[in-house]
Amino acid sequence: MDIAQGETAESHLDALIAKRHKQRVKAEGERPEEAIWRESERRYNALRAREMRARWYGYHCEQAERHRRTLEALIAHHELEAEKLCEENTNGEKRNGHHDG
To answer: Whole-model pTM above 0.70?
Structure first.
């Protein structure tokens, strides 16, 4: 059996389990243990979501700082190169391959 067939079979089983669970809950109602477990799961998922948001926040702040440093270095480099070219033109040195004069 290839992976796709296995995944298809697994998704069918998941759907069957979910359907049977809904039928049982409709007929019998929630079981107290399940209600406690669901609340525990909800709290865990909420905590995990908060932790992931905090991690993503930190990542984006750090990434912004890295980009800021890189861009500032690039800007400084290009300003220096432009300044050199401006000084060459002001001092009458080569311009377009010819001497001014």
So the answer is: no
